[in-house]
TrEMBL record:
Molecular function as annotated in GO: RNA binding; RNA methyltransferase activity
Stored InterPro entries: Alpha/beta_knot_MTases, Ribosomal_eL30-like_sf, rRNA_MeTrfase_TrmH, SpoU_MeTrfase, SpoU_subst-bd, tRNA_m1G_MTases_N
GO cellular component terms, A-Z: cytosol
Protein name: 23S rRNA (Guanosine(2251)-2'-O)-methyltransferase RlmB
Domain RNA 2-O ribose methyltransferase substrate binding: 6-81
Pfam families associated with the record: SpoU_methylase, SpoU_sub_bind
Gene3D superfamilies: 3.30.1330.30, 3.40.1280.10
Matching NCBIfam families: rRNA_methyl_3
Keywords: Methyltransferase, Transferase
Organism field: Avrilella dinanensis
UniProt keyword annotation of Transmembrane present: no
GO biological process: methylation; RNA processing
Length: 248
């Protein structure tokens, strides 16, 4: 069965996945058993769909107490694109794309706020990992002020794969991190770039930092040594805008 944002019932979730429905995440009751549940788990893993185990109370709330059978799927409000579709379509019309990669960002409101700023500055796409990222749900749409409907979002298996693909396409990858001496304002942001923002608590993954083209940080002069990730992303994006003003 289905409501506006969720599909509930094991068989209904399996059929939705097989039919190509855009599923953002599946919630499964802790310690769930049975052959049908095993079939669902195999289907999720085969299609690389993000899922997590939750208490039955959460499933009851999501399904509005309908018979969920231990499984509820969150429907994505948008259709995702592949990284090939995203990069190739942008490069056909633009020499200096501006992409954003969000590495394990977990808060839907931070995600929505970043998307809103990205859309305002004319960014060309958002890239997120299929697992471990913030849910692309109604809260994200609301926080983005509807911007999620106006900017392409791409899901990839691994952030490192996206970095390598972008580099192979002539895009310079730049990680926002405190683990560097280089300031954002020392970089050339007029060329094609992808800005990588990390998770709220850990930042950009160390394995990703090893392969990016550039690392940059924002100057900090106060007693608090870190910014909210959406605020930091906004600073990076508007520095790119500043540098690109007047560039044909």
């Amino acid at each position: 069965m289905q409501n506006e944002q969720h599909i509930f019932g094991i068989r209904a979730v399996i059929e939705a996945i097989q039919a190509g429905k855009e599923i953002d995440k599946v919630f499964i009751q802790k310690e769930a058993q049975g052959d049908l549940m095993q079939e669902l788990l195999k289907t999720l893993k085969k299609n690389n769909i993000n899922f997590s185990y939750v208490p039955v109370e959460k499933l009851n709330k999501l399904s509005k107490f309908n018979n969920h059978q231990g499984a509820v799927a969150a429907i994505a409000p948008i259709k995702f694109v592949t990284i090939e579709q995203l990069v190739e379509s942008v490069l056909e019309v633009k020499e200096n794309p501006l992409f954003i990669i969000l590495d394990q960002l977990s808060d839907a409101r931070n995600f929505g706020a970043i998307v809103r700023t990205a859309e305002c500055v004319g960014a060309d796409g958002i890239i997120i990992p299929k697992t471990g990222s913030a849910p692309v749900n109604a809260d994200a749409v609301k926080t983005s002020a509807g911007a999620l409907f106006n900017i392409p979002v791409c899901k990839v298996d691994h952030v490192k794969d996206a970095v390598f693909y972008l580099q192979g396409s002539g895009i310079t990858t730049i990680a926002a991190t405190e683990k560097t001496e280089q300031s954002l304002y020392e970089l050339d942001l007029q060329k094609g770039i992808a800005i990588i923002m990390g998770s709220e608590d850990k930042g950009v993954n160390p394995s990703v930092l090893k392969i990016v083209d550039e690392k940059a940080k924002l100057p900090m002069y106060g007693k608090i040594s870190s910014l909210n990730v959406s605020v930091a992303c906004g600073a990076f994006l508007y520095e790119a805008v500043r540098q690109r003003l007047g560039k044909s």
